Amino acid sequence: MTTQGNFPAGPPIVRNTMMQQYRFYKNFLEDPLGKVTEWFGEYGDVIHFNVGENGHQYYIANPEMVREILIKQSDTFIKGPDYSDEEHGLARFMGHGLITSNGDFWKRQRKLVAPAFHTQRISAYADTMVAYGQQTMDRWEDGQALDIDEEMMELTLMIVGRTLFDADASQTASSVKDAVAIIQKASNTATLLPSWVPTPLRIRSKQANKMLDKIIYEFIDERRASGEDQGDLLSMLLLSEDENGERMTNKQARDEAVTLFLAGHETTANTLNWTWWLLAQHPQVEAKLHHEIDTVLQGKTASLEDLRRLPYTDMVIKESMRLMPPAWSIGRVASQDTEVMGYSFPKGTGLSIVIYSLHRNPDVWDNPNDFIPERWTDEKTKDISKYAYIPFSTGPRICIGNSFATMEANLLLATIAQQYQFRLTPNANVVPQPFITIFPKYGLPMTAHKRQPQSTPQPEQALEMA
Length: 466
Fold this sequence. Notes:
Blueprint: H1 18-30, H2 32-43, E1 46-51, E2 55-60, H3 63-72, E3 77-78, H4 81-84, H5 91-94, H6 103-113, H7 119-123, H8 126-138, E4 145-147, H9 148-165, H10 173-187, H11 200-226, H12 233-239, H13 250-281, H14 283-297, H15 311-323, E5 330-334, E6 338-340, E7 343-345, E8 350-353, H16 355-358, H17 378-381, H18 402-417, E9 420-424, E10 432-434, E11 438-440, E12 445-450, H19 459-465
Helix pairs in contact: 8-9, 8-18, 9-10, 9-13, 10-11, 11-13, 13-15, 13-18, 14-15, 14-19
């Protein structure tokens, strides 16, 4: 028996047995970006395939479909088991935070978390971000070989430790990085074994989760005991009240803190990773970036007030996130039978909005695979659907930390690019690996080259310096 309805074309796949599903999933995970690029190229920007006897799955890279799902029918399309299931989904690590929860509980938590990301609150963190960027560079030397992935991960970890917990995360940096790597792998590893089977990866992931719990509950206990607002995000989480005057429990605060801790450092780190990678391959773009930074900053330290005078820096970050978005896809499940743009979505239908492919849709973007920051001028973007570019999602569930992340990425790019440029190590094997975020599978080996900021460079000179 098959469900009747109108479905778009897609790969001729029948997944009738668990082994078939496992093999398909395992094959897909070997090269997800290549596989979805192949499918969208062959079938268009809305793809359907059958899962099992009666199941359905969509892959979507269509702006209007994005608008329908994430805006118009946002209450119908909810976070599914991949997020909310406590045995198999992200909830087993993040608990029931903003990323993994649904319904009225999510709405309450969103309201409680929102004050932590008020503009004035996050603006106060700008100097912290720049200071940690400077501390990171103080360890580097001209000509030094670095794994930029490790450097950016540690840098953003230090920043989230200070801004979230008002704490120096240097003592726990190595442990947290290892824990995040294990959680990433555990979240994206296909297995036929029941959840209760203690595989080595599952054992390591539970240990990683316990380690994160220990760190974060200690911060919560300390803050509860003091009852003070120490100017960090955790203070706001613990002090925020709902309309009934109730505050978060320790467990709810833990879940939101873990969510912010994991999402708040890895997404920005990978945005910077891919920005350095792209700049190394496009010296003319890099030269324009250096020209702007040198002209505006005049050798001084970057500040929040400088960002409005660094439009090209922002364009570079936007274009980097277009080509290599922090989260490469968004998953949803239809909570009831519905239709979207004439296509059938029976209850239980799963879908992935593939942001990576949406951002490269040739019907929307000219030269979609090229790194062109200039495409982000107001004149060139006025006719582009805002649903064609969603690095932080969109609609009611848009990432609550998007302003924080954007400010951080821009400030760190300006701070570091003022003093250093990076070149890929010869024969470096840089492989984008999409798990929760897109990260360099084998690291990002680069050589750091010290540069001298020019006080009043001319554009022609800047191009020659590249």
